[in-house]
Each structure stands twice: as structure tokens, then as C-alpha cells.
Specification:
Layout: H1 2-20, E1 33-37, E2 40-41, H2 42-53, E3 57-59, H3 61-64, E4 68-69, E5 72-76, H4 78-86, E6 91-95, E7 102-106, E8 131-132, E9 141-144, H5 146-150, H6 158-162, E10 168-171, E11 184-187, E12 196-199, E13 202-203, H7 217-220, E14 229-232, E15 249-252, E16 261-270, E17 274-283, E18 291-302, E19 309-323, E20 327-341, H8 348-354, H9 365-376, E21 395-413, E22 416-435, E23 450-471, E24 474-494, E25 514-535, E26 540-560, E27 566-583, E28 588-598, H10 614-620, E29 628-639, E30 643-655, E31 658-661, E32 673-676, E33 680-694, E34 697-710, E35 714-715, E36 721-722, E37 735-744, E38 748-757, E39 760-761, E40 769-770, E41 773-783, E42 793-800, E43 808-811, E44 828-830, E45 835-844
Helix pairs in contact: 2-4
Length: 845
């Protein structure tokens, strides 16, 4: 923690120092860009300018239409380049006063000279396309605009909004998708911890609840500061900093400070006593050329069933400072404190017996003690409960995070650009549970219950660096990523007082009466990548490259009755990626790509090769192979002034799948251990289209079919065969469909959408199917754009689960099972009923 705080202190001191230097020491504008853009479609040139300058340029492929951009070769400021690309195009260029994002949109049929955005003070304008279907990309990629994300209720996880993209299935049991225990996403049959996640390029780990190498996006970035989110369903970029991206990557981004001083405030109220307050101050450009924003939010919500709360407070700070004409420094800091009460994990039998609203009994500590006391004495439990797992008194989680990075973007010599990012992350917090199996000792309180915790501490630091050389028809990029991660995990028991209801359950505990186990894990990650993007002709481009990945992990036992001290490595020196893009004309293009990815072993006591005994690890150490995937895609895209569409087919071969099982009774004290159990094949089709069928009106639709099945049976420890070959992968529906009807005239907006999902399975034998379902959502808003005291005010209403559908949301929250014919396995979460949220936001100055 000392090292992390020191790095943050140095970053802040450096930023403050540069900002305090005399004004003449720095240019008040961003560094000049060394551009080599050929004459091509305007959409492609804007996308390339956004990538090179690291500034958001929001536009619609359909609005750009058949417009072409002039060639740019030489040094230009960002404003000069944007003006040259869009001059005489009939397009309007404006800068969002709250986010700093540039919007390029259609402005009518008469061309006009576009004002330079750096000096334009326009009211926020929403771009026309909410989903960009990856035009110009040599792989399946979609981007959700910042505007689309912000049409969800504040506090909504951006993962939930991603569910409208083809092939994506996101589930959670709370209406905003923020409850981390039940937060799940599957893409093409790959689960949450088999995908890669980054924020502004820095790694967020595998995003699972018991995250050993990162954190959830909701704790790393306030939702009001979300920039565009990019999803690559099968093939992420070679430089993506992730050791778990078997099935795709999700790249989050934070907005930049604005050039103008301003204050943004918003407040949200809604169902389940939800309320959220947010404030963000933008400094505007300071005397030294830098600019920053600082923001804070506090959110509170009761659970929609049972008792308990979800509470979070968060602080974001971002500072951008040009250092002369060639270097730009960016500082980002995030502080977060989250405390949430759990929803009870259910089984199908419990749902049939008690209904979808069955939950814990946090309002009745006396009853919880009676259940625990009866179970421990072997007596009949109070009716209607037959097992201590039918309900609990309380459970939940506490997390505190500090995340930060210092990034330098630089233009070293003509044609050569690069960036270096140094980042750190500190996390601590327990997961809590009222344990009816381990009573509190009499001398410490004597309750038949105790508080069982799984406690986490994490300290990560790392560096990412890359260089790109662009000359003639080639762009060659090379990069390196290193991370050092020190992660500790412990299971402890804390006392409760008999007959005294705990006044504060979700907190940091001290002085346990028992430590069941405690381990420390250290992981070093090294990744190198090299890629060439070759524009062979104006119509044909090839991307080819590879990455090398090495992950070394070790575990040391601090305290345990089954100690384990061991190390393991996962490495592959050649993980190739090849993509081809061919444009037939301004409307039609096709792409094809191939990639090979590897996942490193998880270093944790909860899962992975270390979640066993010393003997169990010795048994598997030399047999385990890291999981790998080979992904092939073939796709077609079309766009004109009113329609953009994409159709993609894919084939994924998932090799060396890992599964925890009990291998042999001769291993004394053996717990579950990992083994490679064969492969999985995923094949499917994804289609998406947006149709602007009338002025200000659009219709979006997406459909995906995914056949993800196991290829091999499993031999159990007793020699029996678990016949899962040909069975559908757990948690992955075969069919997902989305639609959204939207209207937006700049003042009034509204959208009505729905999602269909076919049946899913939580058993490997597929003997307990969960039915499919259809859900609908509604949202609308009004923007006060006319001059006056109300200018900058916006009102918004969001209705989740419009028709109050009862359904099962997340599955596999406590894992998956071979078979569950009686429906007794508690691994299901039910979804929230209809919930309504109302938001008022105001931009000042």
C-alpha cells in the first residue's frame, strides 16, 4: 500500500508542478500530430484521427455517407486536422460542453465551412448513431457511444447496456446491474472470467466477483464519466492488457476534461428508495495549458426484496497536461467505497415453494438464531424451513479501492508516436455471511451464529508501453506490458452476541476467533506484441501480428490445516492474429480474421490450480495446460445514408478446458483439483442493423445464434463417465434477440426496447433447463436547449422490466453442477420486478 500511495503522490506532484510552471513554457493547445492519412472515406479518416489524437470523435456512419476526406500528410494540430477533413462537407462539428467529446453530424443539404471545435461553445449535441457497427475494422467490433450509455439510469453498469449488442448476454439480480455477486456476462459461450477488460488501456482483470487481479468497472469509474465502450466479440487487439481474453475483450474509456470551465450536477430518485447524487467540476484550460475534472457521487438503494441496502461513494479525478509540443501527460485517480447486502441464492425448488421474492431474513435475527440452534441440535427447524440453507440472516460484501495511472503520449520523430502508462491498484475488503454451521464460542458472545468472511487484499502495479511507426502504406506497432500483483486471501470467523441484532454487519472486522486459512499469491505478467497494418490498395488492408505472453504465479501459506507452497507458469511465445478488410465500394465491405489466445492460470484459493492441497497440486502440476482458443470470423458490412448493417459468422475451438473435480481417493485430504477435460466448439451467426426510417427516428435490431457445446465426456474419480459430449455450454443461450425503437430530435428523446433470450442450463448434463424470457425497457428525456436559466437542464425517466416479468436472471452464482434432477442446487438469482428511476441533471457555465 505504501508503494501505491507513493506512486499516486509522485503523479500528483508531477501534475501540480507542470501546471504551476509559467504559461510560456507550454503550448496552450494539444501537441501537433504527425499525420499520414490517404484520401479515403471521411468515416475512416475521422476514426483514424480519433485514434491518433486520443480524443473522442462521435459520428454516425450513415451521416458520413459517401463523403471522402482529403489526404493529410504533415504536422497538424487536432483542430486544424478536423477542420481540413470536414470543410465543405455540410457537416456540423461541435464539442460537448460537459464531456469534451467532438460530435460530427449532418447539418442539412447546403455545404458550409465548419467552425473549429476548440473555440465553439455549443450546447451538448447527441450523435445520430448510438451503436457503431465496426466499419473499417478487420474483425467483429461494435462501439456503444457515450450518449447511449448515458440514456440508462445513472449508476447502471455499462455491462448491462452492452447486452443490446449481438451475442452478448448480461445478467444481474438488481435493476441497475451493479450488484457484483450476480453480475455476469457471456459472449459466444464464454463466461465472465474468460473475457478481457480494460479502462483507458489499463487492465481490470477477469471481472469475476472473487477477482484476484482487478476490479469491477463500477468501482473503477463513475458511470457519468463513461466514454464510449468497445466490444470485440472474439478477437481483441493484440496489445490488450489481459490474461483472460479467450472469448473477446471489452474496452472501457473515461471522458476527458473539457476546455471550458463548468459544473455538472445530477440527482436520481426511484424505486426501492434509490437515490444518487453526482457533481463534477471542470477546470477548463489552466494558465499552464492543462485541464482537469474532479467528481463525486453517493448512491443508496434498498434491495428490491428482503432487507438490506446497496451503498457506494466514489471519487474520480482526471488531469491532462501538455508538456511542450510533443508530449501529453494524463493523470487519473479513482477512490471507491462499496457496501452491499446479498440477495439469496435460490434453487428451482425454493422458487416453486416460496416464489421469486424469497430472500434472507435480515429483519429477524431471533429467527436466524432459532434455525441455527435447531440445526446444530439435530432438531426440526422452524416452519416453513427444512434446511439452514433455505434462508440466511445476512450476507454481503465490502470493497475499498484506489486506482490510478499516469500516461504519457508522445510524438518523438516524424512518423513515430508512442505512449507509456504506469498504473497502480490497491484493494481490500471482506465478503461476509452469517454462518449457521460455526457457532460463536460462549466466552465471546455465545450466539449460534458467527460471521464468516473471505477477506481480500490486492496490490497491483504495472507498466504499458507501445510505439507506432507509420510510413508509406504500413503502420507497425510494438508494445510491452508488465504487471506485479500481490494478492492475499483469508477465511476467518468473527463472534456475534447471542440475542443482540448486529448494528453494522457490512464492515471491516477485527479479532477473529478462528482463521480457517490464509494464503498469499504473487503473479508476474509479461506480454509483448508486434503488429503491422498494411494498406495494400485503397480497398484492401491486412493486419498481421502476434503476442507473447508469460504469467508466473506462486502461493505461500500463512495459516492453514492444509498448507500449500507452490508455483506454476503459463506461457506461449507465439499467439498470432491475422485480419483482412476489403472495401468493394463506399457501401460494402467484407472482413475475415483469425486469432489464437491463451488464458493464464488463476492464482487464488477460490479457484485455479492452487485451490487444493500440496498433494493435490503435486498430482496435477506437470499435467495442466493453459486454456487456449482459436477463433475464426468472416463478416460483411453495409452502410448508406439510412442503413448500417453487419452479418458475421464465427467458429471457435476452445482447447484444454479446465474443470475442478475430485480425481483420486488415494490423495490424502484431496480437495477439488483442476484437470484438462477436453474442448468446446462454438459456432454461430451474429446480425445487427440500424435503420433511420424517418427524420429523428431509428430502429435497431440484433440477433445471434450460438451453438456452443462440449466435445468430450468426463471420466469421474470412480471410473464412471459423465456424458456431456454434445451438450450445450452452461449459462449460454443459443438465441438472443434485441430491438430498440428510438426518437431523438435534440430536445425530446425516447426509446423502447426489448430482449429475447432462449433457454439456458446450469447443469453440464443439461437436465434442468431454465425457460427463455422476453424483457422490455422504456426511457425518455427532455433537454432544455433554449437560452435562459433552464439551459443545460435535462430530465430523464427510465423504466426497467416494463411489464413486470418474473424471471431467473443470473445462474451459476455458486458454480455449476453435473446434474440437478431434484432442483435443489442453490445457484440461481431472480431478476428485479418493474423499477422506475427519475433523473434531473444540469450543466452550469
Amino acid at each position: 500500500m505504501f508503494r501505491l500511495r507513493t506512486s499516486f503522490r509522485h503523479a500528483m506532484l508531477a501534475a501540480t508542478f507542470f501546471a504551476s510552471l509559467p504559461e510560456q513554457s507550454f503550448s496552450a493547445t494539444l501537441p501537433a500530430l504527425d499525420l499520414h492519412l490517404g484520401s479515403q472515406s471521411l468515416a475512416a479518416s475521422l476514426a483514424e484521427l480519433s485514434r491518433i489524437s486520443h480524443q473522442d470523435i462521435l459520428f454516425s456512419e450513415t451521416a458520413m455517407g459517401s463523403r471522402t476526406a482529403p489526404a493529410l500528410n504533415g504536422k497538424y494540430t487536432f483542430d486544424e486536422a478536423l477542420q481540413r477533413l470536414t470543410q465543405n462537407s455540410g457537416l456540423i462539428v461541435s464539442r460537448d460542453a460537459s464531456s469534451g467529446a467532438i460530435t460530427v453530424k449532418s447539418g442539412g443539404s447546403f455545404p458550409r465551412k465548419v467552425p473549429r471545435p476548440a473555440v465553439e461553445k455549443a450546447s451538448p449535441v447527441r450523435e445520430e448513431a448510438m451503436v457503431v457497427l465496426g466499419a473499417g475494422q478487420s474483425r467483429q467490433v461494435q462501439t456503444l457511444s457515450r450518449t447511449e450509455l448515458h440514456k440508462a439510469a445513472p449508476g447502471t453498469s455499462p455491462l448491462a447496456t452492452l447486452s443490446e449488442l449481438p451475442g452478448v448476454n448480461f445478467q444481474s439480480s438488481d435493476p441497475l446491474g451493479a450488484y457484483e455477486w450476480a453480475q455476469q456476462i457471456t459472449i459466444r459461450g464464454f463466461f465472465t472470467d474468460q473475457l478481457g477488460y480494460t479502462l483507458d488501456g489499463i487492465p481490470l482483470g477477469n471481472m469475476q466477483y472473487r477477482n484476484n487481479n482487478g476490479l469491477a468497472i463500477g468501482r473503477a469509474l463513475e458511470t457519468e464519466n463513461n466514454g464510449p465502450v468497445t466490444l470485440a466479440q472474439g478477437t481483441g487487439g493484440l496489445g490488450t492488457a489481459s490474461t483472460s481474453n479467450l472469448g473477446g475483450t471489452i474496452q472501457f474509456s473515461s471522458i476527458d476534461p473539457t476546455d471550458h470551465y463548468g459544473l455538472d450536477v445530477s440527482g436520481t430518485v426511484g424505486s426501492s428508495n434509490t437515490w444518487r447524487g453526482f457533481v463534477r467540476l471542470n477546470s477548463g484550460i489552466l494558465p499552464g495549458g492543462g485541464k482537469f475534472y474532479a467528481s463525486y457521487d453517493y448512491q443508496y438503494a434498498d434491495k428490491w426484496k428482503g432487507w438490506g441496502q446497496q451503498k457506494q461513494q466514489q471519487l474520480n479525478f482526471k488531469y491532462i497536461q501538455p508538456l511542450g509540443d510533443a508530449v501529453k501527460a494524463t493523470t487519473y485517480l479513482d477512490f471507491d467505497d462499496r457496501r452491499e447486502d446479498d440477495y439469496l441464492d435460490l434453487s428451482t425448488s425454493l422458487i416453486k415453494k416460496f416464489g421469486y421474492n424469497h430472500d434472507d431474513i435480515s429483519n429477524n435475527y431471533k429467527l436466524a438464531e432459532q434455525i441455527a440452534r435447531a440445526y446444530q441440535a439435530g432438531e426440526t427447524l422452524p416452519s416453513p424451513y427444512t434446511s439452514p440453507d433455505d434462508t440466511y440472516y445476512r450476507g454481503g460484501g465490502v470493497r475499498q479501492d484506489m486506482v490510478g495511472y499516469e500516461k504519457f503520449d508522445y510524438h518523438l520523430i516524424p512518423h513515430l508516436t508512442g505512449s507509456t502508462t504506469v498504473y497502480g491498484h490497491y484493494d481490500r475488503g471482506p465478503g461476509t455471511w452469517s454462518d449457521p454451521y460455526d457457532p460463536t464460542p460462549a466466552n465471546l458472545g455465545g450466539s449460534p451464529l458467527s460471521v464468516s468472511t473471505t477477506e481480500y487484499r490486492m496490490q497491483r502495479e504495472g507498466v504499458l508501453t507501445s510505439l507506432a511507426y507509420q510510413r508509406w502504406h504500413h503502420k507497425i506497432e510494438a508494445g510491452f506490458w508488465f504487471e506485479n500483483n500481490l494478492f492475499s486471501q483469508a477465511a476467518k470467523l468473527y463472534p456475534l452476541q447471542e440475542g443482540v441484532t448486529p448494528s453494522n454487519f457490512q464492515r471491516f472486522y477485527e479479532n477473529p476467533f478462528a482463521v480457517q486459512w490464509q494464503y498469499t499469491f504473487r503473479t508476474h505478467v509479461y506480454q509483448f506484441h508486434l503488429e503491422d497494418s498494411w494498406s495494400i490498395t485503397p480497398k484492401l488492408r491486412i493486419n498481421a501480428g502476434f503476442k507473447s505472453l508469460v504469467s508466473n504465479s506462486s502461493v505461500a501459506t500463512a495459516q492453514s490445516s492444509n498448507p500449500i507452497n507452490a508455483s506454476i507458469s503459463a506461457s506461449n511465445g507465439f499467439l498470432p492474429q491475422v485480419g483482412v478488410l476489403y472495401r468493394f465500394n463506399k457501401h460494402h465491405e467484407v472482413f475475415a480474421d483469425f486469432s489464437r489466445n491463451m488464458s493464464a492460470f488463476t492464482a487464488s484459493a477460490s479457484t485455479g490450480p492452487f485451490s487444493t492441497t500440496q498433494a493435490g497440486f503435486a498430482y496435477i502440476h506437470n499435467k495442466l495446460k493453459p486454456e487456449t482458443t482459436n477463433t475464426e470470423e468472416l463478416g460483411y458490412r453495409f452502410h448508406n445514408d439510412s442503413v448500417q448493417a453487419s452479418l458475421t459468422g464465427y467458429y471457435v475451438d476452445f482447447e484444454n478446458r479446465l474443470l475442478a473435480s475430485s480425481l483420486s481417493s488415494v490423495i490424502v485430504g484431496n480437495q477439488n483439483v483442476l484437470e484438462n477435460v477436453g474442448s468446446v466448439t462454438s459456432r454461430g451467426v451474429e446480425a445487427a442493423a440500424t435503420w433511420r426510417f424517418f427524420r429523428n427516428w431509428s430502429l435497431y435490431g440484433a440477433w445471434s445464434y450460438n451453438d456452443a457445446h462440449y466435445n468430450d465426456n468426463i471420466v469421474n474419480s470412480d471410473g464412471s463417465i459423465l456424458r456431456i459430449a454434445g451438450k450445450q455450454v452452461v449459462a449460454a443461450p443459443r438465441n438472443i434477440g434485441n430491438f430498440k425503437l428510438a426518437y431523438d430530435d435534440g430536445t425530446i428523446w425516447g426509446q423502447f426496447g426489448g430482449q429475447y433470450m432462449s433457454r439456458r442450463f446450469y447443469t453440464y448434463l443439461n437436465d434442468s433447463p431454465l425457460p427463455g424470457r422476453v424483457l422490455f425497457n422504456l426511457s425518455a428525456g427532455y433537454r432544455f436547449n433554449r437560452p435562459g436559466i433552464l439551459k443545460g437542464l435535462e430530465a430523464q425517466v427510465n423504466v426497467v422490466n416494463l411489464f413486470d416479468k418474473g424471471y431467473i436472471s443470473s445462474i451459476g452464482t455458486t458454480g455449476f453442477k453435473n446434474s440437478d434432477p431434484g432442483g435443489t442446487y442453490q445457484t440461481l438469482q431472480t431478476g428485479a420486478p418493474r423499477q422506475v428511476f427519475f433523473t434531473l441533471s444540469k450543466h452550469f457555465f
